Fold this sequence. Notes:
Number of helices: 16
Shape: globular
Strand content: under 5%
Helix content: over 70%
Structural class: mainly alpha
Distance between the termini: 72 Å
Order of helices and strands: HHHHHHHHHHHHHHHH
Radius of gyration: 25 Å
Amino acid sequence: xKKLLFLLADFAICIAxxxxxxxxxxxxxxFDYIESDSLAEAVDALREAMRLEPAHPQNVFLLSxxxxxxxxxxxxxxxxxxxxxxxxxxxxxxxxxxxRASLRGERGTYDAAIDDWTTLIALQPQNEDYLYERALCxxxxxxxxxARLDLESIDRINPKSAKARMGMAYVYKAxxxxxxxxxxxxxxxEHNKDNPRLLRERAEVxxxxxxxxxxxxxxxxxxxxxxxxxxxxxxxxxxRLLRKDTEYALRDIQKAQELGADARxxxxxxxxxxxx
Length: 276
């Protein structure tokens, strides 16, 4: 009987607390939670606000914020549902469409991401970023023709676009046209010689072309510029493994693992080391 009374008392307290909290107060609490980095609690607060007033005109913005918080928490499927719900209220909102498109790319649902980028391009046909992102998604799905068309569109809009050149380098790599890709990376690095990403990607091309020393030089410089980036160590491990420098290759792949490299890639390289 006492236990039942305690449970009823707790229930009554919860009703009192939640029943007295208004829509605006829940929204305010969500901001407080975000400031204290309590993102899960912030999501719950936004959900409570919308539960109280499901027809409130500000709910579209709460859904957008909730999606972003869920994304930061790694709850990607929930985030997509939130963005989609918000788009049900504002179907042509560019911010929402961009967020969902990039999220879908992050989730690996590239066809769905392409749909969103296509909607955005219809809204802004001259937007280089939208065309570039769709090109990358098309490339991942194997549509090199579609990717090339998007990149050519960028080049017509802006003949000096670095995005168009970088995107075409990806297309050439996907098609195994390494010499063409190398020419583009050389041109890009002329104007941005200390870009670690470009250096790393040119190193990959050098590696495919069999220019091991040049590949190692580029990746060493990329690591020097960005020592906390795991991809540089992964690539250098692969290069050193080709040179049969297993001891240093192992050091690199262990460093990459410490920095958060993809576990599958780390495993593959370690297995290759054992084969040596």
